[in-house]
């Protein structure tokens, strides 16, 4: 849910004749500000790509075939980054022509607050991601591969969720419906899932349970479906600032990739390695296309990502957590989203009145945001740390996200050999 206000039906009606007469003259050239790709690439290379490449190619002894697959996937993802950069301005022109735009509420009262911002640009990311992921099958999977069915089921769930997200952007679906949409999108994955349904009992609890491994059966699949619902909606409600939805996805995706490489390097189990490699094959395209979107969505935002992107990103990370068998780690990566969900629960459940937009108040005179009493992490940070600009607040929240991911790595290192 971005910090946006859609044009009213009256406004749309008044403008319709003008837009209809001029629609033929709209070219696919960029109607938006230039991307910030150079800054985004420089920052991400310094803090992620260089360390990640070191882990993959130098630090860990990874089989040549597996390393080759990771490299091919990375090259395709890198190509997807540039394709996305090119397609976003083109798509922006067409969504504006179809009146899919909004106004930035956090800039209301300023000239930037009157600019039409194209919405639902997450559909571009979803399409490029799917093309990259499908093309990668040619280089990595054979027709009899045991992973191919689950890989295609994962893509089906992600595609289904992207479609439902776009429908939500167009029809503005009520919250009670939004909460259950991921359940339908997860059905292809749940039906095709052929992995284990067991959990390893933590060592301190084995004397009390009497088992080292517990088979949950259908309860495990229920857990998988609930995880998809949580991941998808938690990204969607932790929003409202330029760059926050995409930024948190980039941080979590980076942490997932580093975690996967560490697990591949430390394991000797071929199946375990393939599970984490499977996760890499989906997260690298997610990260690359998200960085391209962030180039336009970073403050001041030229495009809005829409529920299409938040649903797509949440489902993708849920899928890799499930099929990569690290759902516990994934939930720790989602610590800020868990906190935001707990803060939001009274309003989302109807116990406390929930406004249409649970956003901070913007002062056009100072350009600063002030926290409200709404139950979101955005407002909580403003109440605790004081008024600040939208950009500063977004950076602070993303730093908190990165700290949460680092805490997960420290916790895993501390509990290794004792917890499981």
From TrEMBL:
Keywords: Endoplasmic reticulum, Glycosyltransferase, Magnesium, Membrane, Metal-binding, Transferase, Transmembrane, Transmembrane helix. This is UDP-N-acetylglucosamine--dolichyl-phosphate N-acetylglucosaminephosphotransferase. It is found in: Endoplasmic reticulum membrane. Belongs to the glycosyltransferase 4 family. PANTHER family: UDP-N-ACETYLGLUCOSAMINE--DOLICHYL-PHOSPHATE N-ACETYLGLUCOSAMINEPHOSPHOTRANSFERASE (PTHR10571:SF0). It holds the Pfam family Glycos_transf_4. UDP-N-acetylglucosamine--dolichyl-phosphate N-acetylglucosaminephosphotransferase that operates in the biosynthetic pathway of dolichol-linked oligosaccharides, the glycan precursors employed in protein asparagine (N)-glycosylation. The assembly of dolichol-linked oligosaccharides begins on the cytosolic side of the endoplasmic reticulum membrane and finishes in its lumen. The sequential addition of sugars to dolichol pyrophosphate produces dolichol-linked oligosaccharides containing fourteen sugars, including two GlcNAcs, nine mannoses and three glucoses. Residues 1-30 are annotated as: Disordered. The keyword Lipid metabolism does not apply. It is a multi-pass membrane protein. Its main location: endoplasmic reticulum. GO terms for cellular component: endoplasmic reticulum membrane.
